[in-house]
Amino acid sequence: MKKILVLVSLMLACCGGFAQKSKSAKHRFTVYGFIVYAGYSQNGSNVKASYKQLQQYLLQYGVNTMDLIYEQKVLDYPTGDKKNGIPNIARIDSLSQQALGFKDVLVSLDLEGWNRWDTVKTTARMIETINYFKKVNSKSKVGLYATVPQNTYAYSENINRYDKINKGYAGVAAAVDYFSPSLYNYDADTVNWNKTALYNINACKKYNYPDKPILPYITPEVDNKGVKSMLTYDEMMSHLQTLYKLGANGCLLWTSSGMRYANGQKVYVDVNSGWMKAVKDFIASH
């Protein structure tokens, strides 16, 4: 892991003025979680837990609750076309009102269905949805999954091609309260993950809203060409340290309810080993 962190430092040093901004003094780093696994491990046994129970359990280790709202909860599909959803104002109002009852719980809208390359119609719809939400609830902090900046998926040498489309989402960047690029694991290449993180966090800063937190989506899950696995302690710790060095203000830890181990067993969170211990240790030291 030390070699990986040295590489990150070298990458930052090669980025001129951006590197100076990234190498900030100690700052607050908040971890939010959408953890939908089967439960948690305690004293050598697996304890089944509901989503709410698991969030309460993880809260004692510093993982804050977030309100992730998928688009099917806020959109209607009158023609059955999932790429042409229409905001349902009544449901948005209801969800917005519910969010008011949970102090300091971050709201994240996942609106992936619309054509992301249409920077006119799609951006207008996103801004409209955010405005509907904030009309009822102006207190909750609202962001969008992998939208500002746009999802780059796995790293590629021409990743800068996303610069143009990110500019097209400037209006959306103005509407959200924080930025949450997606930094999932599409292979086991930590070096390329670091490069993707560097590009995306830099893209957030280019919107020039220094007071808006940068809270990337990350996951302990690895999907390497269909082969599923979990990050190790060192890999997760490296990811978190990289985000911190790059100037992120925290992260949104996402998991899938469909995730299974190679033997088909459901996942239970263990704060004393593996990726979750890395999260716990990182939070404790920051």
Please summarize what this structure is.
The chain has helices at 2-13, 16-22, 51-59, 89-100, 121-136, 162-168, 170-175, 190-206, 233-246, 274-285; strands at 30-34, 39-42, 45-48, 63-70, 75-76, 86-87, 106-110, 142-144, 217-218, 221-224, 227-230, 250-254, 268-269.
**CATH topology descriptor:** TIM Barrel
Major beta sheet, strand line-up: 8-7-4-1-12-9
Largest β sheet strand count, sense and barrel closure: 6 strands, parallel
Strand content: 15-25%
Q: Supply the number of helical segments.
A: 10
Number of strands: 13
CATH class: Alpha Beta
Q: What is the terminal separation in angstroms?
A: 19 Å
Shape: globular
Average pLDDT number: 92
- Count of domain modules: 1
Q: Which residues form runs of ≥5 with pLDDT under 50?
A: 2-23
Based on CA atoms alone, the radius of gyration comes out at 19 Å
Tell me which CATH architecture applies here: Alpha-Beta Barrel
Helix content: 25-40%
CATH superfamily: Aldolase class I
Q: Structural class of the secondary structure composition?
A: alpha/beta
SSE run: HHEEEHEEEHEHEHHHEEEHEEH
Organism: Mucilaginibacter gracilis
Protein name: Glycosyl hydrolase family 18 (Putative chitinase)
Keywords: Signal
How is this structure best described in words?
- It is a single chain.
- The protein has ten helices and 13 strands.
- Strand 7, helix 5 and strand 8 form a beta-alpha-beta unit.
- The chain is globular, with a radius of gyration of 19 Å.
- The N terminus is likely disordered.
